[in-house]
Amino acid sequence: MGVGAVESLQQEVAPFNIKTLLVEPGYFRTEFLDKDNAKYTNTTLEDYKPLCEAVFSSSRATEGNQTGDPAKGVNRVIDIVKGEGLAAGKEFPPWVLLGPDVLAVARKKMEDNLKLLDEWAELSSSTDL
């Protein structure tokens, strides 16, 4: 479910005092990428092989080297839900990034999006009568 869907759901259920939260985690030291859990399927499409090999290689190299502490991650989510700790005094978010790695990726993506908005601003705003 994407951010837009969660934001919509949040507005829909707010009158019923229901809160929603999309957690987008980075890499945490769990067994998720463990060789017994991660399944890599070879593609038969030649054009996709380089991409698949790069993603699989990156995932294999990451396994066991994740910097995120799962207990800390869970505690941060609990803090958000309870409005305590680092979340104290903040408005309940529709979504949260969890981990410095995913924060860096998201920040870069948002900077790229702002650059794109600026580049196309004249064209984008030239449609009124």
Structural key phrases:
single chain, 129 residues, mainly alpha, 49% helix
Uncertain residue segments: none
Q: Structural class, from secondary structure content?
A: mainly alpha
Strand order of the largest sheet: 1-2
- Cα(first) to Cα(last) distance is 36 Å
Number of strands: 2
| Residues in helix, % | 40-55%
Sheet of most strands: 2 strands, parallel
Series of H and E elements: HEHHEH
How would you state the average pLDDT, rounded?
91
Globally, the shape reads extended
The oligomeric status of these chains comes to: single chain
Radius of gyration: 19 Å
Tally of separate helices: 4
Roughly what fraction of the amino acids lie in strands? 5-15%
Summarize the structure.
By secondary structure, the chain is mostly helical.
Q: How would you describe the overall organization of this protein?
A:
This protein is mainly alpha-helical. It is built from 4 helices and 2 strands; from the N terminus they run H-E-H-H-E-H. A two-stranded parallel sheet has the order 1-2. The radius of gyration is 19 Å and the shape is extended. The relative contact order is 0.16. The model has no long low-confidence stretch (mean pLDDT 91).
